[in-house]
Amino acid sequence: MTTGSLPGTAPPVQRPRSQLRELELRGVSRAYGAHLALKPFDLTVRGGEFVALLGPSGCGKTTALNCLAGLLPLTGGEIRLDGRRVDTLPPEKRGFGMVFQNYALFPHLTVRANVAFGLKMRRLGKAEIRDRVEAVLRLVRLTEHAAKHPGQLSGGQQQRVAIARAIVVQPPLVLMDEPLSNLDAALRLEMRSEIRRIHQEFGLTTIYVTHDQEEALSLADRLVVLRDGEVSQVGTPAELYEHPVSPYVAAFMGYRNMLSLTAMSGDTAAGRGLSVTGTPGGGPVAAGQPVTVAIRPEDLHVAGDGEPGGGAGTAGTAAPAAVVGEAVAEVVEYHGRTLHVEAVTAEGDRLHLRTSRPVHPGDALRVAAAPERALIFPGDGSAP
Ligand code: ATP
């Protein structure tokens, strides 16, 4: 573990360049008895990247993180840090920073002493410890609370102490496991941007576990979506948002309308009183095949919206929206300029759409979507 500065010399206040070039996971897997909780997977993380592992409870996120941390041995595969194999090393020899949902601070130590702890364990000089602790406390904006004990701090402040403690040792990699899940909604939002800021200002390489799609999209440079211990898709937020490879990933990316229909051709599907012109989302589709059509609520609207005199519409889409079918508005929520509408078709399918027209519960609506915003996936697997 390099500290980045010589004993006795003043450490840099900020370290904007990541000291890690590349973290490589090759065929990494983990079984609990006969249960393969993490199927073999590959992932390369570049220095300075923020990568989120995203998936529902039980998909293997924590298992993956604990394997990286060294808290769980791998069943197969290897992990390399800048070419050097680390999966054979115990956690303390890997020198990664870790932040968990329960902050695990020492209650009897002050904030300053909590943050200094790791540096003391590394037997650094007093002056260097003082300088580095003060620099990190400034970074996480806790200087004025340095003499307090954790019990005197708010949840968000405690979480910042946990982050400070993890990064003060200048780890090559920071691992975070749902670090915001114990905070209330407002604080979660605030801490989200704090974490991103700290990641950037300190030049960290971060792997972050969450089940919250919005959190992952807003924080990460790349997302790894997991399902039943298997990687479903890896990509930037924009790639996953625009081009999910399966209904499962689409559901995670906010495609709330999942329609089980039958393909009429490669880019049309129908059934249950609905008819969709769309775009193949996950490989070729043949006529007669069962398909799942995925459309985000913000891409489904009342026919005529977006046209002259119309309302919300799919701004920026080239092709005109094609009518999908008819439904009766059931729930109408006011959200400023747009209304969020839940409507039900004659066959009982529930549609989620947006409009800026005055819609009321009980109104019959003709619903439309732009073809490039309706993704047609092979298979009838409505998202789990
Ligand atoms: P959560 O968000 O609920 O923490 P997760 O995505 O982090 O879930 P893991 O905790 O990694 O999921 O668990 C993955 C799978 O491995 C689950 O099916 C879980 O039941 C199983 N599992 C986890 N820990 C153990 C263990 N110690 N022994 C046996 N099975 C385990």
CATH architecture of the largest domain: 3-Layer(aba) Sandwich
**What's the CATH C level of the largest domain?**
Alpha Beta
Look up the CATH topology of the largest domain: Rossmann fold
DSSP strand tally:
21
Fraction of residues in helices?
10-25%
Largest sheet data: 6 strands, mixed
Averaging pLDDT over every residue, what do you get? 88
Q: What is the CA-based Rg, rounded?
A: 25 Å
Bound molecules: adenosine-5'-triphosphate
Strand order of the largest sheet: 6-7-8-3-9-10
Strand content bin: 25-35%
Q: Total domains, how many?
A: 2
In short:
This protein is α+β, with helices and mostly antiparallel strands. 23% of the residues lie in helices and 32% in strands.
Feature tags:
6-stranded mixed β-sheet; Rossmann fold; alpha+beta; single chain; OB fold (Dihydrolipoamide Acetyltransferase, E2P); binds adenosine-5'-triphosphate; 32% strand; 384 residues; 2 domains; 23% helix
Describe the 3D structure:
This protein is α+β, with helices and mostly antiparallel strands and 384 residues long. The protein has 2 domains: 221 residues, Rossmann fold, CATH 3.40.50; 123 residues, Nucleic acid-binding proteins (OB fold (Dihydrolipoamide Acetyltransferase, E2P)), CATH 2.40.50. The chain is built from 9 helices and 21 strands. The strands form 4 sheets. It has a 6-stranded mixed β-sheet, with helices on both faces. 41% of the residues are buried. The N terminus is likely disordered. The chain binds adenosine-5'-triphosphate.
Topology:
Elements: E1 22-32, E2 35-46, E3 50-54, H1 61-69, E4 76-81, E5 84-85, H2 91-94, E6 97-99, H3 111-121, H4 126-139, H5 155-167, E7 174-177, H6 185-201, E8 206-210, H7 213-219, E9 222-227, E10 230-235, H8 237-242, H9 247-252, E11 257-263, E12 268-271, E13 274-277, E14 279-280, E15 290-295, E16 300-302, E17 322-335, E18 338-344, E19 350-355, E20 364-369, E21 375-378
Parallel strand pairs: 3-8, 3-9, 6-7, 7-8, 14-21
Antiparallel strand pairs: 1-2, 1-4, 4-5, 9-10, 11-12, 11-15, 12-13, 15-21, 16-20, 17-18, 17-20, 18-19
Bound molecules: adenosine-5'-triphosphate (ATP).
Residues 32, 35, 37, 55, 57-63, 211 line the site of adenosine-5'-triphosphate.
